[in-house]
Amino acid sequence: MDDRSRVTLSIAIVLAGVLLAVAAASLVSEAETDQASGTVIDYGDRDTLWTDADLSGYGTALDLLEYACEFNGLSVTFDDDGAITEIGGVANTDTAEWGLWVVYPGSIEWVHLDAPYDYDPEEFTITSWSYVAEGEEPTVAVDYSGNPIYGYQQKFRVVSLSPSITEILASVKAENVVVGVDSYSNYPQSIADAAASGDIAVVGSYTSPSFELITGTNPDVVFADSSQRSHTNMVSQLRSASVDSVLLYPGEDLESIMDNIFIVGTVINYGMAAEEVIDDTYEVIDLLADKVFTPEAGGTVDLMISLDPDISPWVSGSDTYMSSISSLFNSNNVFSEWGGWVHLTSDRIPYANPEKIIIITTEYSATQEEYDYLYENLPAQWKDTDAWRNGEVYVICESAADLVQRFGPRTAQVAELTAMILHPDAFDTEVPKIIGDDYEDYLEFSTYMSYD
After folding, report:
1. DSSP per residue over 84-108, as a string?
2. Does the pTM exceed 0.70?
3. What domains can be seen in the chain, in order of their start residue?
């Protein structure tokens, strides 16, 4: 991919955040929502058990649960009020208990329903008997359009419409079922090579997928990214043509990214591999947090994240991938009062006065010469910050720029680089001020999570 294409993709990601709020309002339509033919038993931490069932054969949600327990050889007990106290040997405790949770047609939100459980299961998109702690919700069970993620047959022909989704498929060891990708899917290299040779079809760009090219692959399922309006529209079009399509969640935080990996694994029946990716990610995040939240690592760092070194740059507010990841490691986004990616006027930068600045760009190469040129030629407003005065301006470029803009299975690597930039005293290895294709050389905990 040339630099101009990379810059176009970066801008597309920015604009996606601006448009997302508009698109989200029209994503879920009760008339278009499918109904799950079965029910979920959810033990928590994405440990779920799906049971297929014809809902018309069960008068109440309780009847459906009793069938699921009998089918799977599970016990179920109730208290005197008819509330569940135990399923499959897992009993209520002071911190968590069983309950009936549902998603209504036209929604993606969980709703808790009290006993007695005499509700008609056909009233809901999906029912889940979930073991959850107070203030928490069950494992995700519908995609971003409100369609259930359970009950699919085995998928052998899969199309991805975004680089992040392509990486998720590779991470769960499903490369062999990928028959189509977007033109920006350049990782892992095996996928890029297959697309270049024609073994995998290119079905359009990330921002402009092609209905004809997608359907030309005869897909079993198509995965789309809800942060792109064109993907939302494509999902509706594909479903109208009876093509199974799944709309993943915006990857704005760690939980939604892990949900997306879980959804992909569940839909294509690669759930165990997805669980391994999720568990490994949390393990690395926990290791990094243990190192960062120590007296030796220092205090909270005021951070600015920018997509370019311009006088009026696009910077990260709250509710972005990089802002969410950096917040895990004792940092304060100095522009968090805004949501998404924000086009700043230059006077805001010295006023915010970040201690550290991360610039994500594809217009520079990872050499000291190019870094020195960028650093010395930053606008005057950038130079009027503690970050510039103290030499705490970091540049992420080349393939590392792709890495930090893709909310997928390499999140642990993004997290490690970010933590090392924010708190270098907590780590044995020091990252340079400009990081490019050699980013893996600086990783210690997440090296094995490249999925290439």
Report:
1. EEEETTEE--SSEEEEEEEE-TT--
2. yes
3. 17-30+149-281 (3.40.50.1980), 33-133 (2.170.130), 283-449 (3.40.50.1980)
